[in-house]
What does this fold into?
Amino acid sequence: MAKLPGKSFLTASLKKWERKLNEARKRHDFYHKESKRPESERQKLAAKWHKKVKEAEYWVFRRRTELARYGPAKPRIITAKQAGIWQSSVFGSLGPEIKATTHYAASPRARNLKEGIRLALQFAAFHRGKGWGTISYAYLIPDTGEIICGRSTSHKAAHVANMNAGNIGINFFCTTGDRPTEAQKKSAQWLIANAHTSAMPKLHRTDRDLRKADIRAHNAWPGQSTGCPGYFTPNNLGV
Ligand SMILES: [Zn+2]
It folds into this structure.
């Protein structure tokens, strides 16, 4: 297979062709509808710009397809420290990340980052009150797709009954009947592919590639009686 052109080249090229497409569509419309030139000339010019529209459409489609193979773009990442979430090693170390679990919190949706941080801080206080030290989720993703980091990936949590060793909890701020937004899906996909890379701050980086982990909905683990995570299953998130 031919080598894929670099991502920055593709991004720049896509922008260029999107601009050209816009311009060509405008000119095409102009010669069709507004130009005061004689009819035959107008038709010729409209046909010329029609060709350019088709060419630009081809390149925009092609560049988008090529870029899609790189996977979703990196979402904005907010560290626990930036969010005001404290750390706790009350359950000891997490161990190698061989599992990941999707959750809802039976909470309102976080419609944006601000609401996400506010809710995450509430979860952290609630979980501390239960004796879990701090928030039990390693990552939380509001409707707008930012990744709010919670409990460090070094520390074991309490998010699935009897199944927390090596298990990363990902929460989506929602409840029964809610569905993932496109931004949440893309962000979850990016996270699973990149949590172990240097794109993730050290405190929140996994040792293992989560694409090789057993990723399940909370209630898909044995012995769990919960509606969590509703529609926020790995399948629906595309992870
Ligand atoms: Zn859950």
